[in-house]
Design a protein that fits this description.
metal-binding; 40% helix; 11% strand; metal ion binding; single chain; Glyco_hydro/deAcase_b/a-brl
């Protein structure tokens, strides 16, 4: 049977480079992306904010502590957040550095919120972490405090229902994803105690939107129309099978909300792009274009219509 589903399709890394921006805007205009997440330290961030304004694209903050340069002036000269070249430590390097004790995160996160405000003219309605840094044990409390301080209501908790069933993800990447998942489970209490709405049902908190997150299993070359369809369908089936608590409406009687994280764009052409160090391999690869082509495929669009899936943004929840 068909019941209403609200789907937030978030294009991450908006502001990374002009070609990424163009790809995300093309997806938005085609009705394939409904929300974007801005990297304020991206080389084309100002251009991205201008495009969001021009086309009225719902925009939030993709907080970045792992790639490129900080935006907080004080931290540019001397900070444990940076390596000897003055850049963030990288996706895995950041995780290693954290275990040695990192500082200044709060200042940098606030500086990114302030810069977002400056670029867009408003505070971000939602804020998540580039490369999922926001759910790490040493980061989550600080991240939650910044969200609470600025009254940012929505974030992302990357726990994906179908992850364990995916045999196409290489072991090293799966190990990273399972780490992200474990950290995410442990983040739920922290976020809800700060009054932040997250994407899994936590009956005690009163916050329960969005219900479902998808995006790890459908990234890059792994994305296909059938893959997105089955990820959505199986996530909904699993969600519907959960028994509601006495205080919650039954899943059947309300709209289900899903966030699908995507990374469409035209491949970056170095040296243009990135967050201070030039574009990375994923950004230069055909996988970005592959995502763009898949998301704009009419077959996927008609599937949304058949399943009464309505694309929206966080502010529409």
């Amino acid at each position: 049977e068909s019941f209403p589903v609200k789907l937030i399709v978030t294009g991450d890394d908006f502001g990374y480079c002009p070609r990424r921006n163009q790809g995300i805007v093309d997806c938005f205009l085609a009705g394939a992306v409904s929300n974007v997440s801005l990297l304020v330290n991206g080389s084309a961030a100002a251009d991205a904010a201008e495009l969001a304004r021009r086309y009225n694209i719902p925009i939030g903050l993709h907080a970045n502590l792992s790639e490129g340069s900080p935006v907080c002036e004080v931290l540019k000269t001397n900070s444990s957040l940076l390596n000897q070249d003055g850049f963030f430590h990288g996706k895995m390097g950041f995780r290693t550095a954290l275990s040695k004790g990192l500082l200044n995160m709060s200042e940098e996160l606030k500086a990114q919120v302030e810069l977002f405000h400056e670029l867009t003219g408003h505070l971000p309605p939602h804020m998540d972490g580039h490369q999922h840094v926001h759910v790490l044990p040493e980061v989550r409390h600080i991240f939650a405090e910044v969200l609470e301080e600025y009254g940012i209501k929505y974030t992302r908790v990357p726990i994906e229902p179908g992850l364990h069933k995916c045999d196409w993800i290489p072991p090293s990447l799966m190990e990273f994803y399972l780490g992200v998942e474990e950290d995410s489970f442990n983040t739920v209490d922290v976020f809800t105690s700060h009054g932040i709405s997250i994407n899994i049902s936590v009956p005690s908190s009163g916050y329960r939107w969005p219900d479902i997150y998808i995006g790890l299993t459908t990234m890059g070359k792994n994305m296909s129309v059938s893959n997105i369809r089955s990820a959505i369908d199986s996530a909904i089936t699993e969600f519907m099978s959960k028994a509601p608590s006495p205080t919650e409406p039954t899943p059947q009687s309300r709209t289900i909300t899903i966030e699908l994280m995507v990374h469409p764009g035209y491949p970056s052409v170095p040296p243009v792009g990135g967050c201070g160090e030039g574009p990375d391999d994923f950004s230069q690869s055909w996988e970005r274009l592959h995502e763009l082509q898949t998301l704009t495929n009419p077959e996927l669009q008609s599937h949304y219509k058949t399943r009464s899936i309505q694309l929206c943004s966080f502010k529409d929840l």
